[in-house]
Amino acid sequence: MWIADVEFLEALVAGLRQRGFRVVAPVERDDAIVYDEIRSAQELPRGVGDEQGPGRYRLVERGDSARFGFSVGPHTWKRFLFPARTTLFSATLEDEQLRFEPAVLPEQRYAFLGVRACELRAIALQDRVLIGSGHADAHYAALRAAAFLIAVQCGQAASTCFCASAGDGPRATDGFDLALTELLDAGEPRYLVEVGTDRGREVLESLPHADASEADRGAARAASEAAARQMRELPAESLHGVLASVREHARWDDVAERCLGCGNCTLVCPTCFCSKIEDSSELSAKRAERVRSWDSCFSFEYSHLHGGDVRTSTRSRYRQWLTHKLDTWHDQFGSSGCVGCGRCIAWCPVGIDLTEEVRVLCDKDAAAAAPVEGDV
Amino acid sequence: MSSTTATNSPTTVREPMLPSTYRVLRREQETADTVTLTLERDGEALAAACEPGQFNMLYAFGVGEVPISVSAASDVGEPLVHTIRSVGKTSAALARLKPGQSLGVRGPFGNVWPLDDYEGHDIVVIAGGIGLAPLRPVVRRVLERRASFGHLVVLYGARHPSELLYLEELERWRASPDTTLGITVDRTTGVEWMGPVGIVPRLLARARFDPIETGLFLCGPEVMIEPCVREALTRKLPLEQVHVSLERNMHCAIGLCGHCQFGPHFICRDGPVFAYPDVESLLRVREL
Ligand SMILES: Cc1cc2nc3c(=O)[nH]c(=O)nc-3n(C[C@H](O)[C@H](O)[C@H](O)COP(=O)(O)OP(=O)(O)OC[C@H]3O[C@@H](n4cnc5c(N)ncnc54)[C@H](O)[C@@H]3O)c2cc1C
Ligand code: SF4
Hints:
Chain A is an alpha+beta fold. Chain A is built from 13 helices and 16 strands.
């Protein structure tokens, strides 16, 4: 492990840009921390923290000079690796000759600065879905293979975080090229640097750094321990078979009373991968295009069948979302689809807290009292 | 083999979302709203083999793409056969295609009816409406390999006599050795109809088969499944021998878009054909 002072960030951004990367990092915009391209480390927020709760997100002054003093905001890295809209091909039809032209694969090379542990895990889950389950998504695979990931270890958790119980907890141990822990003991922050890959090492070697002292390592450990103290939790890391066994629980009706069916939770979720395919043609009707865009299991059309939509009630759509994320994801991809980032709690306009819903749904005493039909 | 899927076939297109160009070779008007299209691949590449139970994604230029089962099995390089009922935007555009016109095809996708597991057994085929299309290749295969199977029962329900598919072929089936064909309709308004009126499960009650040695294959509206299964149970047919083809909204057919999820299953990839016990509890959940 190495130690670097705050100038390291500027050199890192410059070095990555020199290598042809577009550096994307947290920036402050519209009263939120969002991810966008930066050209200089000066663009990182300074001394900004956040306060989050169910249906609540606001930025606060920290009174220090932390560059990464907040938790995750409304953006996720999937907006870069799995963009909300991707053109898959164009087609032409002239004189009864139908021709298809696949879209060019993206060539952007992104360097993500400030990827949290839950987000690394989310990227690994999307890898499993979009690359590792039979038919690889060529667009995702191209962007993903080129991406350089710089993790930032969390020094505190938001009140909405529950990565300690949902995933591997707040300390990233792999899946990054470089990882930084921000140490705030002096005026300007210093960074403990961990190397995850050879190309991470190559980048580090070109930048100013020194060996980390035992005290610095201890401070980084303490930061992670602080971040591991979380208010919210899931009853178990694996809920495989649990939610699927309570598909007729009365709580689904209860949550449906509150849920607006807006789908915000699916948009801010870093692992939600559902998409829709739309084919359209130009007015000339000679050229057509296929676009894939994000979809949400909360939309009506999502389950449309000729003769009627399958999931007409909010109850069934919320149940699909939660059960897929925490239960049937195991059947499909061998793990839970939730990383505990808490975004769906903060960005739900009515403050529905999935950890609370799960607690009630999994409560055996309550379940015994609730009517359970059909499914076992 | 019953587990053949086209995904490992060498003729499958590499970019899974990119269709190949096919051309309508023949178009048969089956009923007022349903056509059978025979499709030939454009260019040098060979069409992939399609097995009974599988489906292709058919793309109408600029309009959309929908899953349509193969209504006849085809070997590598042979034309594809699809029966399409016009119910909405894309199916209507496909059903309007005339010989010589082009469309896009991706596939085949999905698993197959496990007919091979029932060699020497009786075969019961139950179809409702357009559900006969994916089952026609099963009936054809049994008749082609007549000696390999026992008695064949085909039970087919339609809303109205005017909506019956494959009329000439139905007559050939009726006349085939060791074959029982039962057809029932919901209504008979405006036509003379000598056959039964009512739901398909009633035909099952009277059908001739050996419950222990029978494979039952079913495709039709989801509401048809439960009463048929109940009838099969009354006849002491083990439910592992009941196979149903299911239908959900589908956009990609390769397990990436999420739409066709049915509990833990992606219908496009794990189905569309399921052994009934694997989906029994899921079918009981409303709005799953
Ligand atoms: C595995 C499988 C095999 C099928 N085989 C046949 C067949 O052999 N012959 C046939 O006529 N029909 C078949 N269908 C049904 C056919 O796909 C739908 O009728 C068709 O998608 C309707 O699209 P539309 O645009 O015309 O109608 P709309 O009602 O306008 O539908 C809009 C969109 O919703 C989706 N959608 C609507 N209904 C269905 C549906 N039933 N299944 C899946 N997606 C749907 C499609 O994405 C469609 O583009 C099959 C469906 C599945 C899942
Ligand atoms: S849970 Fe909240 S965010 Fe999700 S659909 Fe319901 S109201 Fe919208």
